[in-house]
Amino acid sequence: MLEKAGWTLPAGKDIREKNGQPLRIELSFIGTDALSKSMAEIIQADMRQIGADVSLIGEEESSIYARQRDGRFGMIFHRTWGAPYDPHAFLSSMRVPSHADFQAQQGLADKPLIDKEIGEVLATHDETQRQALYRDILTRLHDEAVYLPISYISMMVVSKPELGNIPYAPIATEIPFEQIKPVKP
């Protein structure tokens, strides 16, 4: 695929070139996030195997969010919002210029159609139509390789044994205190 696009690997070099320019891209991440840093290093190593040079940009959280808002990134880590916001609110944010998703989709030829379908999927009450629209939107984004699903963060709970089993809430930021049944000593 890279060869077809004109990115060739010159003899004796590790990085592909096109018209004399190296295949170089930046990957931005929150520098204090150990998981993101580890994933960034793995992506960097994997990309080098195909002849792409990935520069890692680890910055403070506010700088990364500023990059997401104004589109100053080649690649950037971004998480979905999780239940109950996925997929409705998450897709809706793709139409707003201050979100990384909007910025990442700017080069897509069918961006206006994606935005139109997002508006339709949010307004329809017809479940069959909603499923078809979601399928079309997500297929378009997948086919364009805008997103690379690489991780899912698991929830962890640490508690004293006296509290018994601690249930997980469907929303990562909530603790279902009403469901906690302490164990009697």
TrEMBL record:
It comes from Escherichia coli. One of its GO terms (cellular component) is outer membrane-bounded periplasmic space. GO terms for biological process: peptide transport. Gene3D superfamilies: Dipeptide-binding Protein, Domain 3. It comes from the Bacteria. Residues 1-98 form the Solute-binding protein family domain. This is Nickel ABC transporter, substrate-binding protein. PANTHER family: NICKEL-BINDING PERIPLASMIC PROTEIN, PERIPLASMIC BINDING COMPONENT OF ABC TRANSPORTER. GO terms for molecular function: peptide transmembrane transporter activity.
